[in-house]
Amino acid sequence: MSDGAKAGPVVLTGALLVTQDARRRVVRGDLRIEGGRFTHVGPDAPRTGAEVVDATVFAAVPGFVNTHGHVAMSLLRGIADERDLSGFLKTLFAVDARRVEKDVEVGAAAGIAEMLLGGTTSFLDLYYHEDAVARAVDRLGIRGFLGWAVLDPELTTQKGPPLDNARAFIGRWKDHPRVTPLAAPQGVYVCSKETWLGARALAEETRTLCHFHLAETRREVHAHEAKTGKRPVMWLDEIGFLGPGMIGAHGVWLTRREIEILGTRGVGVAHCPSSNLKLAVGGVCPVVELQGAGVRVGIGTDSVASNNSLSMLREMHVAGLLQKHHRWDPGALPAQTLLDMATIEGAHLLGRSQDLGSLEVGKRADFSLFRLDHPTLVPARPEAIVSHLAYSAEGGAIDSVYVDGECVVRGRTLTRASWEEIRRDAEREADPLWKARPPGASAPGTEPPR
């Protein structure tokens, strides 16, 4: 049980509620929180037995859901800038070989702190040493959906078969209230048919999600087509892998037929615009077409090695501008759709829309309080707040963040850990990794094996 679930009732009064409910209401009202859930959303919340907090200067916004990342790579921010994808990956290959569980946990803590301070309350991760990430999740109070990287045994540096490691990880953490463990096949470039189907079987057996990289680069797609005669989505469908509860990251190089397959199979997509632009993958995720085919699309930051930020506010902004520019259509991905992708649609991708993604009675109390007097939210009008969140708001506008009803950020300060200690640890553990950085050069590949 979380600390928020153990705490007494709290009533926040007079906030501007950006509910993200079915009607997408934006209203002045109160939030009552008991047992980690909302028990009242709207005017005149009962105050009996509750701590009452005046929230009239705040907008209450559902916690952001970051649907793709590698949070432990926070120690590698800026380590491979201005390199083409081959040079970028050569750097990561070299540095990744030096990583140990201790620095993974330190890096995860730094990344989680950044996300919490930016209003993200849930994130979907893909990495190895996920036990270390889970410990950081437990310590700082965020909600983590943690995918153990799975690839062919002969291609990994992990100790033991990656699929067995994923199974054991799921067993260790499946009962944690804020950790959802899962298997995460790395991608078609390091996973055989047997590995893909093994990951699917594990997900079905343990009733967990399955997360993977998909059609991120043209090289990835063409190499797989040359090897198998099929594009990745077509091949994954042919072998019987695709299905509900699966989230593909990137989805840049997709054909119309592949989009239709994803929609038919119930596969979700995590759109990572900043990472795609920075690495110059040469394409644009067909978000509008995906949504038109019934594919749920969330927003992901990817890692700070390729973004270089974990800000979902920034990612919403970039996602909107990219689609408008690419399609010559200022109405493409409007502000409300962008906020949906960062909240309720992300919750749908994670299979948790019944209790995350909006401010509604019965849902988990995961939300942020934005200061309405912050320069990036002025004029603070109800009819403009969604636009402000999508196009102008900065992280400095976020005052407090709640997960499971527990205030994990108050007055822009972490409540469960000291940022100064996290920062010092991160600087120390980053030193040997940065010393392992090779000079820029080209090397074949797509994503570094885990």
TrEMBL record:
The keyword Lyase does not apply. Keywords: Hydrolase, Metal-binding, Zinc. CDD domains: ATZ_TRZ_like. InterPro entries: Amidohydro-rel, Metal-dep_hydrolase_composite, Metal_Hydrolase, MTA/SAH_deaminase. The keyword Hydrolase applies. Residues 426-450 are annotated as: Disordered. Residues 60-407 form the Amidohydrolase-related domain. GO terms for molecular function: deaminase activity; hydrolase activity, acting on carbon-nitrogen (but not peptide) bonds, in cyclic amidines; metal ion binding. Gene3D superfamilies: Metal-dependent hydrolases, Urease, subunit C, domain 1. This is Amidohydrolase family protein. It comes from mine drainage metagenome.
